[in-house]
Amino acid sequence: MAAILCENCSGQYHYTQVNQRLEISCMLLLMMLGKVFLDFFMLQVKQKNVKVSFMGYFCVSLALLDFTLLLSISFIFYFEDFALWGMRFTKYHICLLTQIISLTYGILHYPVYLVAGLDYYMTVAQTSQFPKRGQRLLYVFAVVVIWISGFFCILKVPAIYEELEIQNHFSPYQCPLSASVQSYSVSCAMVLLIGTALLACQKEVLTMLLSVRVVSLASQPVLMFSYVSNNNSTCFKWQLLTRLLICFLGTWAPFVVLQIIILFLGARIPAYMEMNIPWLYFINSFLIAVAYWCRCHDVELTEEMWSTDPFVSWKFCFMPFNNENTEPADKPGTVIVIC
């Protein structure tokens, strides 16, 4: 009788563990499905007439890689146990693939933001002399090199591979996924920088917000702020910082609040979810604002220069507004910030 009971317990334990792995596979599949949908949704709603940039190419590559991972997970989940090219695939590989992608995403934040920042610093003032085709090829090459380097570091570094083996050996039915230290540090740095800038410009920001008026321009509602022309270099950069902050927060304020909540709660998001296109476009706008502020005296006021950001309009941070097509009539010497 005891032996029968023990055998039943063992069978029940195995059944529970199998169900647990199935639930984890379903969860990973659904999360990747949601992420892929969000990726392509952001690529669809962004402005189309935007200048080519490294970050734009990297976002497209990320969406394609996420879609490839989703297809791979779905294929393994459906067929459960099969052989392909002499290799056997089971539901264990759903977890393994996600872990490899997660570790790769986690180490790419610094290089991607560094290359994107240098790209905007060099091109925001239209100083680059690269032809369009050469520039596109350079961006494609940089994206490919970053991805290959990331996967090479994860798959070829023995310490990382051994850590994966240990995790999967001691918790084969849990699929532990790591969070990105790089993403956490970047998030902390951005919140700190934005908070510092707001504190430094709080008087100017409050003054501009109190003077805001909603007007109609080309049948679109826009916000009009008071504009004071000043030729002093220091004062100009101070005023520009205020306008850049308002433009940036006018679009990304909910995202900033979300970052503060995540940091406050100490939530650890898996790296394969943390590297997403909304987050990259949020960083993208921040890097563009920094580039504009650093090279404000070199900015050429041309229409092509303003089509840099897919989500934020920076044009009226630099140009005083003078248009007779607004309702009601506007006073001369104003600046429009489109949010």
UniProtKB/TrEMBL annotation:
It is found in: Membrane. InterPro entries: GPCR_Rhodpsn_7TM, GPR160. The chain crosses the membrane at residues 54-79, 91-116, 137-161, 181-201, 240-265, 277-293. The lineage of its organism: Eukaryota, Metazoa, Chordata, Craniata, Vertebrata. The keyword Transmembrane helix applies. One of its GO terms (cellular component) is plasma membrane. This is Putative G-protein coupled receptor 160. Residues 34-292 form the G-protein coupled receptors family 1 profile domain.
